[in-house]
Amino acid sequence: MEFELAEEHRMLKDLVARFVKDELLPLEPEVLKREAEGRGLGIGREAHVRLDEISKSLGLWGLDAPEDIGGADLPAVAMVGVEEELGRTITPFTLPPDSPNLRMLRATVNERQKAAYLEPYVRGETVSAIGISEPGAGGDPAGMITRAVREGEDWVINGRKIWISRAADADFTILMAVTDREKGARGGISAFLVDKGTPGFNVVRPIPMVGGALTYEVLLEDCRVEGWKLLGTEGQGFAPMQLRLGTRRVQMAAWSVGMAQRALDMICEYAPQRTTFGQPLSQRQAIQWWVADAATKIHAARLMTYDCAWKLDQGRDVRLEISMIKAFATEMAWEVVDHAMQTFGAMGMTKELPLQLMSGKLRTMRIYDGPTEVHKWVVARNLLGTRR
Ligand SMILES: Cc1cc2nc3c(=O)[nH]c(=O)nc-3n(C[C@H](O)[C@H](O)[C@H](O)COP(=O)(O)OP(=O)(O)OC[C@H]3O[C@@H](n4cnc5c(N)ncnc54)[C@H](O)[C@@H]3O)c2cc1C
Questions:
Q1: Where are the beta strands (DSSP E) in 138-295?
Q2: 139 lines ligand 1 (CB under 6 A)
């Protein structure tokens, strides 16, 4: 049994830590200011271009993309270290290309789609979105009713998607739709590549959310998609979609560890300096227990996330572990950040500290890619199912 990262993966983690410290943390005051002024969560185009250039020059690009198209094809274990470091900052920047859609595309594209979609995506030339959720089907995506019907060589899609991140900006959306009502999630749901500006792909409204997040509602009205843009095999879209969701969930667990660690570091720095009733806060048992619990739970979440990623790299079935870490790590970080906010008193309530944005972000993370209760239900159902 080995509990240390391989040397090259530790060096990569250290490199990302330096990138976060030198490039992303200095942008936080501007991110906080923009968000406090109601201008959303962002860094602006110029900063984005500059960060893209720097990450490329550092080799922090295409880390888990295939080698034949310029990636480093790193295992999930290495990516956990990378994502933990990125999780420490509220500056919204993902090392391109974002892993979840990358994993789904890798698992499904044919040669034509590889050239038209995967390769430009890996080069960082395009932005993608994923359209799964619907007004009547979120936590239970098998209940989706958006329908794709074959017409000649094309597919015609009708329905409504909601809560879709980046839908207005994405160059293409991986859109999930029912192609066989009878079969549903068992062979009746397919994935389609829908380009920005396709007639009938109507982004009807932005929906601002807590934590500065922004999602969109999309109405699909006779949206015609060319036949070759069916992603993977007709009716078999659910498994690659789950692969995509699993990738995001592991990533979210790693982000949560990073966020919680940052919040704990902030408590440990502040508590000895702040005196109330003649004693520093660090002498109070309430704060000491928060520190001890946070350190213990962060340690547990980190090990669980590495364990899950390692098993994933071995090709093992990690559906249960993914549900466990997604629920455990996001709830854990939510609690640690909340305790940090409490420790800082009124300062913790301000929009000058990153804590409130971390809290808002974690609040949404407890919902998207499956709410906590759904993941707990999955774990319990699996265990109870074997002991009926
Ligand atoms: C910031 C953000 C970004 C998002 N981005 C995207 C995106 O890009 N693409 C996309 O397709 N979707 C996206 N979503 C949607 C997201 O994945 C869904 O909102 C989520 O899966 C929950 O679905 P729902 O909102 O329909 O909740 P529901 O499924 O209605 O669940 C509501 C609540 O009911 C409870 N519950 C439900 N089922 C169970 C159960 N079996 N056992 C116990 N309790 C249960 C839980 O407490 C849950 O929170 C995003 C959501 C957010 C908040």
A1: 147-151, 154-165, 172-178, 189-195, 201-208, 214-225, 230-231, 275-276, 279-280
A2: yes
Digit-coded pLDDT (tens) for 144-165: 999 999 999 999 999 999 999 9
- Mutation to probe ligand 1, out of 41, 162, 163, 217 (largest number of atoms < 8 A from CB): 163
Residue to probe by mutation, ligand 1, list 41, 101, 367, most atoms within 8 Å of CB: 367
Asked if residue 379 has its Cβ within 6 Å of ligand 1, the reply is no
Task: Tell me the pLDDT tens digit for each residue of 90-137.
Answer: 999 999 999 999 999 999 999 999 999 999 999 999 999 999 999 999
Res 11 pLDDT > 60? yes
pTM of this structure: 0.97
User: Which residues fall within 8 angstroms of residue 372, CB to CB, at 6 or more apart?
Assistant: 326, 327, 330, 331, 366
* Among the listed residues 380, 333, 364, 306, the one whose alpha carbon sits nearest the alpha carbon of residue 3: 306
Residue 328 vs residues 302, 340, 357: alpha-carbon distances, Å? 11, 18, 20
- Looking at residue 118, its amino acid is L
pLDDT of residue 388: 47
Calculate how far, in angstroms, residue 369's C-alpha sits from the geometric centre of ligand 1: 7
Residue carrying the six token digits 């804590």: 355
